Amino acid sequence: MAGEKEENETKSNFGSFLNDLRKSRGFTLRDVEKITDGSISNGYLSQLENGNIEKPSAAKLHHLANVYAVDYHVLMEHAGFVSEASAPMNRVATSVLGELTHEEEEQLLQYLSFIRSQKR
To answer: Per residue in 23-36, pLDDT tens?
Structure first.
């Protein structure tokens, strides 16, 4: 039962992480669909963000990494495919601020999303 709870939290956290990433870039679901030439439909991305897709495809995560300008391994880690220990440490914020916890990284993304929303 504890393992099931952790898996649901990972899915929920991953969806929230993707949503924060998208919003921090100022993209709508349809924007992502257009940018990827339909490779990632707005429906698929919505399902990912809501935690309704258990195992996102590695190819889709690669597309999202390109769209969001984030390291592919970061998405793979958040999706539960790789452990933190095996993920590279070459994040932009890390190079400026030092190593960030997941919570700090998510808070930074949320704050960036807020700042960008104020510019509209």
So the answer is: 999 999 999 999 99
Tell me the average pLDDT across 104-110: 80
Domains of the chain, earliest start first: 2-118 (1.10.260.40)
Distance CA 109, CA 93 (A): 10
CA-to-CA separations, 21 to 1, 3, 5, in angstroms, rounded: 30, 26, 24
Q: Comparing 99 with 58, which gets the higher pLDDT?
A: 58
- Secondary structure (3-state) at 112: helix
Q: Where are the beta strands (DSSP E) in 1-120?
A: none
pLDDT for 96 equals 53
Burial of 109 (0-12, 13-18, 19+ CB in 10 A): buried
